[in-house]
Amino acid sequence: MSRVQSPSPTVLAIVGPTGVGKSTLGLALARRANGEIVNADSMQLYRGMNIGTAKASDAERAEIPHHLLDILDIAESSTVSAFQALARSAIAEIQIRGRVPILVGGSGLYVRAVLDDLEFPGTDPVVRARLESELDQFGPQVLHERLQSLDPGAAAAIHPANGRRIVRALEVIELTGQPFTATLPGATPVIESVRIGLAISRVDLLNRVSERVDQMWRQGFIAEVEGLAAAGFAQSRTAIRALGYKQALDQLAGDLTQAQAKADTIQATMQFARRQMTWFRRDPLIHWLPYDIPDLADQVLALRPTPRLGS
């Protein structure tokens, strides 16, 4: 069993759907509590993907130290096991300095990988290559139907178009002989933390997401994607899944108008937010607070931590 010896101070983890205001709260807490931000958004790991992932600005990074941003090239694949090691190391170093680690992001598995006792099965190059070949030949829907028959719980949690995650789930099932969901046990903390979920109504989230997408295009999102495309972005297996980037590529190719690309991005973001909330609602250790209460930071800092395993 994995045990992480985490000295105080306690980790603050902020989760919730895309666009709810996690980064804003993270910065507010860092200012109040002598904190540093640890990124837990799988797409903010990539260099060059700034506008579309709402990455912290240069001014914000100058004010508050940020960790695990811009550590991968777009051609590289991100893995949760590699992230787990990097994030736990960053948290330990922050704590040694006597500062508060603030884990911020909407990638639910990445957050749990850091805080909970999760161990990830290895990979088999032969099995992986065969499944990826089947993905290329038959498409993700066929493999998703196979996953549905083997592990309905995993199929419900993984979008039918997310070929990479479907392949990984099928690989784990083949290697372990168990359902993929069996490798994701209940919350068993190995790092003392306070987990905060930001709650928001669907109407409010839609308004925030719509404004965010408009802002992305105003800030030069299309130019960002055009630069990434020149570097081979369309061939990336992982980075290409980031919200809005495929739509921007389609706009650049003339397959979508700007209005259509923005509307499709809003729709995809709202669908993704629903899947995020399905994931987060399974974690009984999350304290849910309204995203827009005026004393939000005070309420977070008043919460009692969940001790780590063995404490």
Give a written overview of the molecule:
- This protein is an alpha/beta fold and 311 residues long.
- The protein has two domains: 11-118 and 185-301, Rossmann fold (3-Layer(aba) Sandwich); 125-183, Histone, subunit A (Orthogonal Bundle).
- It is built from 13 helices and six strands.
- It has helices at 22-33, 58-63, 80-96, 108-115, 125-138, 140-150, 152-157, 163-176, 202-218, 221-230, 245-252, 258-280, 296-301; strands at 11-15, 35-39, 66-67, 100-104, 193-199, 286-290.
- A six-stranded parallel beta sheet has the order 3-2-4-1-5-6, with helices on both faces.
- α2 (58-63) links the parallel β2 and β3.
- The longest helix has 23 residues, at 258-280.
- Residues 1-7 have low confidence and may be disordered.
Topology (SSEs and partners):
Blueprint: E1 11-15, H1 22-33, E2 35-39, H2 58-63, E3 66-67, H3 80-96, E4 100-104, H4 108-115, H5 125-138, H6 140-150, H7 152-157, H8 163-176, E5 193-199, H9 202-218, H10 221-230, H11 245-252, H12 258-280, E6 286-290, H13 296-301
Parallel strand pairs: 1-4, 1-5, 2-3, 2-4, 5-6
User: What is the succession of H and E elements?
Assistant: EHEHEHEHHHHHEHHHHEH
Query: Approximately how much beta-strand content do the residues carry?
Result: 5-15%
The structural class is: alpha/beta
Shape: globular
CATH topology of the largest domain: Rossmann fold
Based on the model shown, name its key terms.
single chain; 311 residues; alpha/beta; Rossmann fold; Histone, subunit A; 2 domains; 6-stranded parallel beta sheet; 13 helices; 6 strands; 9% strand; globular
